[in-house]
Amino acid sequence: MFESAEKEFILPIDFALPEVTLPAVLSTDVAALTALLHTQQQAYEASQMAARNVISQARDEISQAHNEISQAHNEISQARDEIRRLIEQIILARRRQFGPSSEQMSGQGRLFDEAEVLAEATTEVEDIAPLAPKSEGQEKPARGKRSPLPAELKRVEIVYDVPEAERTCACGTPMVVIGQDVSEQLDIVPMQIRVLRHIRMRYGCPSSVHAPVTAPLPPQPLPKSNASANFLAMLLTVKFVDGLPLTRFAKVLDRHGMSVPTQTLARWVISCGSVLQPLHNLIRDTLLESSVLHIDETVVQVLKEPNKTPTSNSYMWVQTGGPPGKPVVIYDYDPSRGREVPVRLLHDYRGYLMTDGYDAYNKLTEIEGIEHLMCWAHVRRRYIEAVNVQPKGKSGHADEAIKMIRQLYRIERDHKDADDEARLKARKKLSIPILDKLYAWMEKLRPGVTPKSALGGALKYMHDNWSMLKRYTERGDLPIDNNRCENAIRPFVIGRKAWLFSNTTAGAHASAVIYSLVETAKANGLEPYTWLRCALRDLPAAKTVEEVEALLPWNFNTVPNIN
After folding, report:
1. Chain-centroid distance, C-alpha 457
2. CA pseudo-torsion sign 427, 428, 432, 433
3. Angstrom distance (rounded) from CA 94 to CA 105
4. Less Cβ crowding at N or C end of the chain, within 10 Å?
5. Residue 219 to residue 542: CA distance in whole angstroms
6. Are the C-beta atoms of 437 and 411 separated by less than 8 Å?
7. Residues 275-302: pLDDT tens digits?
8. How many C-beta neighbours within 10 Å does residue 115 have?
9. Residues 513, 276: contact at Cβ < 8 Å?
10. pLDDT tens for residues 353-386?
């Protein structure tokens, strides 16, 4: 650029070379000619110096102009990237708000018309509840046949007899019973509210002054309340399993003839959290025995959190894991999202830890004995966002990444039921070559993509976390993503949409304890209400650690009398 500028450089019009006037007749004197030659030489050198100064000044001006143009180009490029990023953010925000997404629960925005939506395009075949048999020995019916209702459900027989006047054959002979036609219907008994009268017999000696003897009352979960273990179990189930706010449950009770203030229900919930705390402590100990542990966090709003405004966010930290046969889900409330929280929760853990890309988890990996795994689902979501901002009908680089990631998941799906050794062999043979291909693709593409774009952000995220993303191929039992923990968070998120916030930190801590226990019960195949009523009934009477451990979900083998 500078060379071409110099070639085309023209002296400014106000630039004048020094002039020397020659005499009309040159002298023949050598000394005079020599002096004249020196004068001409000095004039020439002065003109060259002036020209060099002008050219140097022009070069400086050209260089400055070049720098300004380059800076302008950079600013334009940055502005273009920022505009592109903002447009992508607008597209993604509109899609999250109004468009369908495979990463979200479908139908969440259409709860009002779910009956119409779900019933559309169905036939009379769907009028039969497809309940699979649960009892051992019961086989599934042939294709197209109606499934029998579970054998363990209580049966109430309603007999329909032929009127006596119609039991005489046309030939005059009285008919006899030769068989029965039996069909079954699902039935439900509405919730019944009743009062348990605890009558404690008292004995005394009529002929002495000794104190009488009174039958003891079994230990109660909340001795100062008039709520039974059954009632408390139902209260916790409707709130923490079914996501029903206490105000709505109070209305349900009122419809059945019993008015219980919402404040009273809230006190009972918080008190139950304290009663169940020993079980929460024990399942935490079991969680830390995991060889692989998942962790994630989600927001919760607490109105009366000290030193925080009511509109600020606090957090539920969710951890899942557990040794074989003892799946555990743990919720922990904390007002902070700082890196000190996961360190406090898991400082005694040693093993593989699956997380998303949140920086707070990096502090855990500094602890010797913790190996950090990263979630491929989060990588895939970033590329899905990059696809969503592409022009409609156009394929781009993000589609290539999604295709390769989909291949990794297909391998996992095909070997879902394989043992760890077979799954490890499949990963080494099939997954590692795909990972190598994906890494080479990323390294080739990344330098030419602006980091602020959706695609650039996805590439940077994958590049920065690559060593932790590929680590799942080290063993056959390691997960490819953090979906197990995200699935554990979902019941809390669904409930949060109904009750919106916690009022106090005590309520948030109680919620953490109860969510932990009901989700752990569900993970162990238990019906939460059945397990809760036994735990609340028997825990107050437990005197030893062994008696408390017997109530843990994986040790639970008692079916209580529900009458």
Report:
1. 20
2. negative
3. 17
4. C
5. 9
6. no
7. 999 999 999 999 999 999 999 988 887 8
8. 8
9. yes
10. 999 888 888 888 888 899 999 999 999 999 988 8
